[in-house]
Structures are given as C-alpha cells and as structure tokens.
Specification:
- The termini are far apart.
- The chain has helices at 4-19, 26-29, 48-51, 58-71; strands spanning 30-40, 53-56, 77-89, 92-105, 108-123, 128-137.
- It is α+β, with helices and mostly antiparallel strands.
- The relative contact order is 0.21.
- It contains four helices and six strands; from the N terminus they run ααβαβαββββ.
- It has a single domain, classed as Nuclear Transport Factor 2, Chain: A, CATH 3.10.450.
- Keywords: Dioxygenase, Oxidoreductase.
- It comes from Streptomyces iranensis.
- GO terms for molecular function: dioxygenase activity.
- This is 3-phenylpropionate/cinnamic acid dioxygenase small subunit.
Length: 149
C-alpha cells in the first residue's frame, strides 16, 4: 500500500541531508541503481558546468553530489514544494515538485535557484528510496505559449 507521507518525507529528507552535508545518510536514501541528472532549462547558463550532471549508480551519484555540495556555500537551503504523485507503476512512484534554493548574501536570505524536480521513488518493501532525481533549473522566462514541455 502506498504511503504518501513517506514519499513526501523522503524528498524533504533528501534535500535536508544534501544541504547539511549528511554524507553518511545519503546511501540509505538512494537505490543502488539510482540515476540523477541536473541542468538548466537552456543548457547554456553561465554556471552550467557547475550544475550539469548525469550520474548513475549510488557510488557515482554520491561522488558527484558530494563534490557539488562541498563546492557550494553554507547555509544552503533547498525547499521542495507542490510535491505530488503523478503515477504509480508497481513499486515505482513518479513524483514531481518545484524546488527553490536560497543561501545568505550580506546577512540576507538570497534566492539562488528554482526549478522543477521529477523523481521516481521506489519501495523495496522496507523503505522508500530515490531511484531517479531529475532537476531542471529555471534560468530564463518566455511567454507561456512559447514554453518547451
């Protein structure tokens, strides 16, 4: 039976553990075959090299994520909102949400990124884990009718 609260909690826990650099927690949140990607919506942002990733497997994902996290400042706060389940296919639960990230600049909370996150949460019977996490960061605005889906 699907535990919607546990799915939501996993996503929130991932972002918290990421921001706080809880590297020892990450493996328990990810499947062995996890696939994580990130990029900007245009693929050409000035910081594309810093954010662009396409990694598969827990070890490769953790290595890239750790390097990425250590290169970013602290405090860093990723917030997931409008989390909702799009589809359930066996043990795979497709989830989508918005992501909004902030840090501190000159003593003030500063927005640094927003975007859409699509993920697959998988149940192994004992726990829910991230099997996929695909983040596309917003970097430009267009008329609604000109957007790419």
């Amino acid at each position: 039976m699907l535990d919607r609260l546990a799915v939501h909690e996993l996503i929130h826990r991932w972002w918290f553990a990421f921001d706080e650099g809880q590297f020892d927690v990450w493996p328990e949140l990810l499947t062995e075959d996890v696939h994580i990607t990130s990029r900007s919506d245009t693929g050409t942002s000035p910081y594309e090299e810093f954010i662009a990733s396409d990694n598969r497997g827990r070890e490769q994902v953790i290595a890239w994520q750790r390097k990425h996290r250590e290169a970013a400042g602290y405090p860093l706060r990723h917030n997931a909102s409008n989390i909702h389940i799009e589809r359930v296919d066996g043990d795979d639960i497709s989830v989508v949400s918005y992501m909004y990230a902030t840090n501190i600049t000159d003593g003030q909370v500063t927005p640094i990124a927003s975007g859409v996150v699509r993920c697959v949460v998988r149940s192994d019977g004992a726990a829910y884990r991230l099997a996929e996490l695909h983040t596309v960061l917003d970097t430009h605005a267009v008329a609604f009718t000109e957007r790419q889906t």
